[in-house]
Write a structure and sequence with these properties.
Chain lengths: 424, 370
Amino acid sequence: MTTPNLLQTTLAGAASSPPLSPLWTLDGLRAADPVLGLALLLLVAVLIAEALHRAWRLPRACGHMLTGAIAGPVLLRLLDSADLDPWKPLIDLAIAALVFELGSRIRPRWLVDNPWLALGCVLQAVLCGSAVAVVLMGFGAPGLSAAVAGTVALATSPVIVLTVVHELRSRGQVTERLLMMTVINSVIAVLGLKVLRVLVASDAETLGAEWLQAVSDALWVTSGSFLLGVVAGFALDRLSPLVRATPAMPVLQIALVIVASMLATQWMLSPLLALLVAGMTARARMGHALTVEPHLGSAGAALNVLLFIAIGLLLGVDGALRLWPWALAIIAARLVATGLAVGALARVSGLGWRQATALSVALQPMSSLAVLLAADSFAWPVQWPGIDTNALQALLLAITLMQLSGPVWTQLALQRIAREVQPG
Amino acid sequence: MPLQAFSTSQALTLGVELELQLVGTHDFDLAPQADDLLRVLRNHTGAWDVKPEITRSMIEIGTSIQRQHAVLLAELNDLRDQLARGARRLNIGIGGGGTHPFQHWSEQQIYPGERFHYISELYGYLAKQFTVFGQHVHVGCEDGDRALWLLHALSRYVPHFIALSASSPFVQGVDTGFDSARLNSVFAFPLSGRAPFCLGWDEFGAYFDKMASTGVVQSMKDFYWDIRPKPEYGTIELRVCDTPLTVAKAAALACYLQCICRYLREERPFEPAEDDYLVYTFNRFQACRFGLDGEIVDPKTKQRVKIRDDIVRTLARVDEHALDLQALEASNTIRDSLFDGNDASWLRAQRQPGTPLSAVVEAAVQRWAA
């Protein structure tokens, strides 16, 4: 389980590194226990986010990420990416809770009722991924590396999107489609990466056999995650009557989310897919009896802030001076491809032009989540041996930009363009 | 602006308007998606009309001019089906009911439009609280004098329509104890209530001019009366009904009104008088509060009767008119509903202990589409 690990790490950390300088100096902070450091960051992040929100109406998630980025390896070096590893289970839980909530929020039946929407979701993912891959190949990246980068880039960040929707409490057609398309493109990204991972590791001679392995791997991940999700959803349905209408309800949900996400990781499945399916199954089985609070309650909300600080801490700007045209090209390719896909099917699927614009902009926040949840540590880029360094760094740079500014795009789209936020 | 002349229309023709709720399919709260639905329905096939209403989670549908129950019902069915198709594409639910059981009025958004903003400015929070859903029935009249006579003769039957259509027991998350809580929102408006007792169109025109000269009203639209003349259509408009949970009920209510109008016009069982209104607000309250079990006082005989019994008697009296108007099926629907209970009691029955009101909304949405 997560807590003993965390405790041990905390205690070990506290025992082994007594602060040399006073805590209020920069060096003191650097030497302080990482857990204490992160807790202090949590405090600062909340205050900074609130100040930025009041001054410029910036989404609070931006403030949280910014705090992480300032404290991180790039600027103040208060914390190192490796310091985050003990926190990983908690951060995974924050993501998992959001994904479960997203699953319980969408209605898969909509894709049947509006086949143009279903087509639009797939088209957006495919166009977006291809556009990014083609652009990177244009810069000279090898095909497979470009494909990996394209697959990561086609996903919209579910974490940013849902957090902004929570904060704005937006309601309307663009919000609904934003959530649905985010779910679909994240799932496509996860499955795509599973296939590509096998292909990247192989060499050209054994490609035929590797294809087989890649496809069977993807099938295993899909069916296994689906089954795990269904079982988790059923379990929640069966267990919740025992604690109905008591404060234990969110606790039960959190516990099941942890179990499902840990099992998925252990069995090399996709936690994202499993938790989405768990959310959908629970909603289908329980209907109105299922109440999912935003972030699964106030503890989840605290974890969510932590999650955004972590995202900020992990932002990388390696090779920014050299690779900025690549990163900008990735961002532009995503925007154009998304705009084309959404625009092409806007009218037939029942969307106005203004809403199509809003939806395209709202889909821009990028995600490293698809990869994060499946990785054992935050050093996930290391797990891709054989991948072109330039393509990878350009991708990370683009992710950095579109994560930091992501909440702003989604807020702009929902509030100003689509006008789906109640004023005041 | 003086009162416009009363257009002539064929007597006893009908037009039905229904205000409907748009709800999200994940939480069944009101969803501000009127624009989306209107866009999807822009190319609908049908003589009917669909329009925005004061807040963005409402739409209003209106039938074409109708004469017969079967045709009216067929048009309403077509309307409902096309609306349902559009709503499915947009992932929203459509439902009847006079109120949304748990919506929060402060979260409603006023639909962009000059008149809606004027109303919102003038009435403040009342305008948002006016997120209630009614059925309006227009009945054609040849001229203004006959329209006003019919309007006042009908006042005696207003409690019937309130009790039969009542479908708004829940407001802001609680059971109000009323069968039609919607009308309480309407009564908050300063120009609600009943029309002044004038039986001639000229006399009514003089009243209107006096009101207009005070600056209180500018057009007939500013009066929120239970029944009001609509001179541009050549109709009187009954506005007390909650939107029922099914189109079948809506069609039956419209044709029950048509039958009563024919009975009143042809048999002239009594002459309307100012004193009829002595018991009017009491009767109306009884119908809102207790529905079909309410007790009303007959303005002529001064006797107390159960609304349910009064409707049974009225149905018997208007039966031959129902036959002539080919509205027997409508009468039967009304008669059945007297014993099955109105929509308010159906909604209350859907509320199981331990389940939230969103389950009640979902049940209402399914009933509307069925």
